[in-house]
Amino acid sequence: MFPWALHHLPGPHQEIFRYQETVRGFVHQEIIRHKLRAPEDPKDFISCYLAQITKAMDDPVSTFNEENLLQVVIDLFLGGTDTTATTLHWALIYMVQHEAVQERVQQELDKVLDTARAVHYEDRERLPYTRAVLHEVQRLSSVVAVGAVRQCVTSTRVGGYPMPKGTIILPNLASVLYDPECWETPRQFNPGHFLDKNGNFVVNEAFLPFSAGHWVCPGDQLARMELFLMFATLLRTFWFQLPEGSLGLRLEYIFGGTLQPQPQEICAVPRLGSPITREEDLALRQQVIQRGKQGTFSLSQHLLPWVLEDQRGKAKSPQVDRGGPAGSAPPAGSAARSRMGAL
Ligand code: HEM
Fold first, then answer.
1. Axis crossing angle, helix 13-36 with helix 45-55, rounded to the nearest 10
2. Where do Low complexity bias regions lie (predicted)?
């Protein structure tokens, strides 16, 4: 009833307000920086929005103003960071859990891609298995389990049910993503949900992690692109596995707005740049495991820096293992050729 009162009451929510203020301050500074720039063609969202504010200055009903600009940028940060990062975290966890799937993705990437260049979004057309795996990650992790709260502005019917004007709607997206009538193994990781019998990628209408219709996530295309590029690049570059002594993966989610994985450690082992046999591959992986936790990273921390740091200077040229077995791992600290150039 008195939302403003929260600002005066002590409690953990004060921390959220502090974070909010930090983000607002940052975006505010960016807006000022953009305004101080010499006039030029608008280059990004903020400069386009500022140009629109100027254009609509004489329109008394225009909603283009700086306060709205600030809020829209914050919305984009809120909607676009945690969702994509959390999905990638789940992707790595599922790859560790399903080693054979991880290997098959790497085999497909090795076979199809020209290894001398970075992954392009268009490549997804030639990578049906990788694409199916990523869709299955999004389906099973269901990071935005419930869509945004909406209210009916007029009386209507949905699926035969009457919805009087004013009804509050909470779209239960997870119920669709786990619907036993739409998915063969709704609670199990199964890339086959998105493949036909010939291994071609197929769309499934019940794949709705971004919601649907008029209220579909406005960032869905960006998210799909980011996820594909990051996932394919990571899997091309590293083999993911549990560190030595690990008690296993923790698959239960934590609810924090999105459904997040629990903090846990996973090894990102740089893949070898020369063809080796399956036996050598396994022996090398074993060596890496025996080197203990050197090279582990925590999922709750920043993803790549340690590996990048470790490999810089060693990776003289970004050569790769076309035709080599998938998931090959070099001994940690060796001067093995790596794929860091692909990042
Ligand atoms: C894996 C990634 C993502 C998932 C699963 C996701 C999912 C969703 C869902 C389910 C909604 C609610 C739709 C509704 O019921 O109204 C939503 C809203 C939204 N998303 Fe995303 N999203 C993702 C990434 C992004 C990205 C990358 C951006 C932008 C940079 C973004 C921006 C937004 C915004 C601004 C809204 C609110 C839209 C509104 O108020 O109508 N999202 N997203």
1. 70
2. 327-343
Distance CA 165, CA 160 (A): 15
The domain 82-342 having CATH identifier 1.10.630.10: the answer here is yes
b/e 11-37 (16+ beta carbons within 10 angstroms → b): eeeeeeeeeeeeeeeebeeebeebeee
State the closest ligand 1 atom to the C-alpha of 72, by its place in the atom list counted from 1: 35
Q: Give distance in angstroms: CA of 248 to centre of ligand 1.
A: 32
What residue ranges do the domains of the chain occupy?
A: 12-80, 82-342
The answer to ipTM > 0.95 is yes
Whether 24 shows a pLDDT value over 70: the answer reads yes
Question: Tell me: the pLDDT tens digits for 255-288?
Answer: 888 999 999 999 999 986 544 455 655 665 665 5
Distance (Å) from CA 129 to ligand 1 centroid: 25
**What are the residues whose beta carbons fall under 8 Å from the beta carbon of 51, sequence distance 6 or more?**
42
- For residue 282, report the distance from its CA to the centre of ligand 1, in Å: 41
- The distance from CA 171 to its chain's CA centroid, rounded to whole angstroms, is 21
pLDDT tens per residue across span 84-139: 999 999 999 999 999 999 999 999 999 999 877 889 999 999 999 999 999 999 99
Nearest to 95 by CA among 267, 213, 300: 267
Closest ligand 1 atom to Cα of 258: 5
Reported pTM: 0.79
Q: From CA 9, how far away is CA 17, in angstroms rounded?
A: 12
Quote the CA–CA distance of 163 and 157 in Å, as a whole number: 5
Q: Which of 78-82, 182-186, 320-324 has the highest mean pLDDT?
A: 182-186
pLDDT, residue 118, reads 87
The greatest distance separating any two alpha carbons of the chain, rounded to the nearest whole angstrom, comes to: 73
pLDDT value, residue 283: 62
What angle, rounded to 10 degrees, do the helices at 128-141 and 220-237 form?
Answer: 120
- Residue 26, SS3 per DSSP: helix
Query: Is pLDDT of 192 > 90?
Result: yes
Cα torsion for 168, 261, 330, 342, to the nearest 10°?
Answer: 20
